[in-house]
Amino acid sequence: MHSIPGTLMLLTVKPVFISGNMTHYRIPRMFDIRRLVLVTILILSTTISVTDCITFPCIAPLLGPTIPSAPSREPSPARSRTPEDPMDMQLRLTIRGGDLAVSKTPRARSESGVGDSTGSETDSTLLDVSSKMRVMSSVPGNRPITTGMKIAVKFRINYSTRWGENVIIVGSTDELGGISNPSEAETRRAIAMGKGKVMRYIANGDWEYVTVMHPAPTGLSYRYALVREKGEPLVEGGIRYGRYLDIDDLVRQSSNRRRGLLAVGSAGSSSSLSEAASRQEPMQLEVRDQWRVSRQNGEDWVLRTDAIAQVVYGQGRLDAVEEAILDGKVKHAADVMKHAEPQDGEKRAAITNFHLNVERTRVPLGCAMAVESAALLKDVAVMSCARFPSWELDLEAPTQLLPAQYKYVVVNLTNGEIVDRESGAPRWLGRPVGILQQEGIRNSKYVVSVRDEATTDRWPVEKADRFRGTGVSLPLFSLRSRSGMGTGEFEDIKLLVDFCDKVGLNSVQLLPLTDTTAHAHATWEDSSPYSSVSVHALHPLYLRLQSLPDLPLDVLREIQDTVKSMNEGSNQTVVDESCGSTLLEPLDYEKVMTAKLRLLRMAYEASGKRVVESEEFADFVLDQGYWLKPYALYCVLRDMYGVSDPSQWGEMGRLSFAQMDALSSPGGNKYNACRYWYWVQYHLHKQFLDASRYAAKKGVALIGDLPIGVSRNGVDIWSRPELFRLDKRMGAPPDAFTELGQNWNFPAYDWEKMMRDGFSWWRARLRSMNMYFHSVRLDHILGFFRFWDLPAHAVTGLGGHYFPSHPITKEELDSKGLWDRQRLTQPYVRSHLLERRFGKDWENVVRRFFSQGLHGTYSFKPGLDTEKALQDAMERDPVQVQGMTRQAVLHALILFLNDRCLIRDEKFPDDRFYPRYKMWDTDSFAELGHDWQIKLKELHDAYFSWRQEDLCEATARESLRHLLAASNMLLCGEDMGPGPACLPRVLSDMSIPGLRIPRVTGGPTSEYPYLSVASTSTHDMSTLACWWDSLPASSRDEMWRSFGCTGPAPLKCSPPVAKQIVQSILASPSILAVLPLQDLLDTCAATVTKDPKSDQINFPGTDHLWRWRASWHIEDLLSNKSVVNHFASMILASGRYKR
């Protein structure tokens, strides 16, 4: 590969076709034809990469030697995953025997002064716009110029403190603590270890710290904190890993000028670089920061997340601003800066280099941030958004004009007019104060970086009209398209995004997409998307097989035939006995997975070799190997042994991580088998990433779902067993919907061990999701406060307690006179109760399961005293009870087993106890004396309320802040169910929107908090129409009023009624309104379902198979103009954001 300097950005130029001595190349559109000509006249540091090793002898002499690019700071996740649009206009580069010709495809610009289509003419304005383009495009690939330099950096921040308080700075250099990614959690940990530096107090709330670095790094990360003599440090807020100071970029500003303009991003001449590196005295950088509020200022924080900043508001901004600069619609600082005459004895006026930086997301499309300063600028100067939502501007301010006032404004990119101006007092640029000040100023070696905060308080219009987004939710397998093989697939996301783009939706929420295959052969038992065998691996169910590369014709034909046969029965109905409803062509999980796995093997054997030998494939395996290798080996062993339980694999079930790596790496005896699963995941990754990028480019954010649990026989338990308490399970206590509670059968986490390594396992999960998603729904966020802990032998959720929690102690029971532990902790079984439950056959039940004690008491026989033992016994040899099914008998036995007031702690059975949830529902409680009832109820209420509050809050804050620091995704919490009193406060403080569903949360939709996600239902609930039709009259009237409606409540949820309820949700203040696809379709007469019950996705506590699929093909929804107009008008009328 040859590298040739000369473009503004990194371009990959690939041959389109070769004819004779001419090779045609296609170059991605930069902005207009002038930019291509700049390839031949600008000396810059980035490169063109020519993949077929063809040189350019005609332009190489003009451009000079290649300057190798340097590693750059990690780009914003959203920008890095948004590719060049293949539909964008392209530039064609044609080489004729060493001569360069340029043509524009498909159209050429017509502005005067631009070269013709062959590129034979060069506009004289090219030199003028070149420097502006450099400033507006801060490309992080330039050769670092700070190597070997001595640089003094002065950090300044204003924060009013009290006596005994100090401001401390923690950062990535050794001097500042060596914390490479100073998240809020890492900063607290560093301070606890005595790392960081205390800043020096100056006056009027100003704090300062000076560090001299030699050699200077290209950049450093840092964060401020307030430390007190007593109490926890107060760490400032901010995005992800704190602030980042791009030292190399700032040094360029003082080393390079064109027409007095700081050329940010250009490499400069070699002489200027050598001069900079050889300076004996230090270069001066002054950083002026403003304290960033912590996450309590939720609105400002949420607007900076990827989902809103990068996807909804950020797409296409950089191009728009640079186009406006080139077209002269707006002014750059170079054109409007004021200059001063040299003072006596000076050859030129002293200047100070300022780098202004402000973060603001909600700048209207077609507009840009700009700076106005009567003292320094003749007109407003537009800012760069290369690092959106950061806006940046570089000024060479004559020192004699300082101090100077300035303000941020918003300009229209089509005419340059100011359309908005920040409120509040003017900001000030003051003279720099520091060592070598005057000399540094005269020699242009003093750069001041000003980091401003643009909170919503300064923008009245923004504060009055908050951002409110709208989305649709569904399982991907439920999406129906004509190209899918009986299920929705990753490529179908593009069609759904097109639908969202048409109707005004800006987010799509999907159920978990990770692999759930826990059996060697496809079975419906693996159909739940919430039972992942790997928290990283994607499910093969969602792969579009016909899009695999290099498929032989016979394999492709068989795939196409299978797709056709899967879609032929699109009008067939199936009765689902588990829920008693009729489903329209539901997902046949076993049939689809069997076909896909068979065809995947065929495709791999026929065409997989080229891919697995490619460099891109090798890079994927290398980057993802930490989870990919254990997962692939797990799949190989699962299929080899026929079971997914590693305890049945012999020695293979007890492998160390190093042994797993050796077996699955080249040379290992399982490598060839593992490579197939690498290949499957590679293609799943590529297809999903492509769909994600497509969505981002359309301004539609993808919202993922992070399940709270993992399969007990999955990869994560096998490879990292130390992170789990394998003798415990997670679930939920009884509620209005489930008398026995829920047992999810997921192993419980060991929070203490996870905490010790900074929740690295959770952070890795978030980073994996961040490759594809822009926002994440935290399933059962209550689990981060406390889990409902169950023993491994539990079947239901009745016998659990909170973990972590403060138990009831032996001493407490003694102090209250509750001395009879046996009576309170053993199942309360008496003859009259047995007869009441089992009727005349009660003695048969006793003989099978119970031992008789004194005074008509009974106890469960040894070996039959757990829920699992009772379940197994009833399956092997069920006892017959007249008028009762086998399941009803088991249900009654389980209620007897849990008929107690207190539950003993398994490790400390004589010292620690937990109240049985709602113990007053038990016969054990009912037949106690009144005095003991009162005392036990007091202990119960204390345990399930205030007693755990501090522990719950501390646990949640510790875990959630690590998850928040793992990415810049918007995290939302599914907080349904009984939660601690601290739940709303913690979510608000940490800027995590909670869920609001009218039937659960109650209250008027108009009073929902801004930091919330409003919806009509979830996948575990009946649809809006089904729920409404089943409401009693009194409840229906109350709900109707909560939606802001007047008059009598309708009896049936017809499309107009559904529309009115959905409009109430859309009108709520919630930052997001995410509607299930079923409820959205039910607002339109053309798309309403015939059987509302059939549209429920999951029925908790049943063997429902996750089979629901949309009744409409997505292609038909897209092409139906009346349907599209119906949804678009409804969303437009809500006043929610539409791109």
TrEMBL record:
A GO biological process held by the record: carbohydrate metabolic process
Pfam families linked to this entry: CBM_20 (PF00686), Glyco_hydro_77 (PF02446)
Enzyme class: transferase
Enzyme Commission no: 2.4.1.25
Superkingdom: Eukaryota
Keyword Transmembrane listed: no
Residue stretches of biased makeup (Low complexity): 69-80
Residue ranges constituting the CBM20 domain according to the UniProt record: 151-232
Subcellular location(s) per record: Cytoplasm
Signal peptide: none
Transferase found in the keyword field: yes
Region (Disordered): 67-87, 102-124
Substrates-to-products reaction catalysed: Transfers a segment of a (1->4)-alpha-D-glucan to a new position in an acceptor, which may be glucose or a (1->4)-alpha-D-glucan
Gene Ontology molecular function, alphabetical: 4-alpha-glucanotransferase activity; starch binding
Gene Ontology CC terms: cytoplasm
Biased composition (Polar residues): 115-124
Keywords: Carbohydrate metabolism, Cytoplasm, Glycosyltransferase, Transferase
Family: Belongs to the disproportionating enzyme family.
Full protein name: 4-alpha-glucanotransferase
Taxonomic source organism: Guillardia theta (Cryptophyte)
Organism ancestry: Eukaryota, Cryptophyceae, Pyrenomonadales, Geminigeraceae, Guillardia
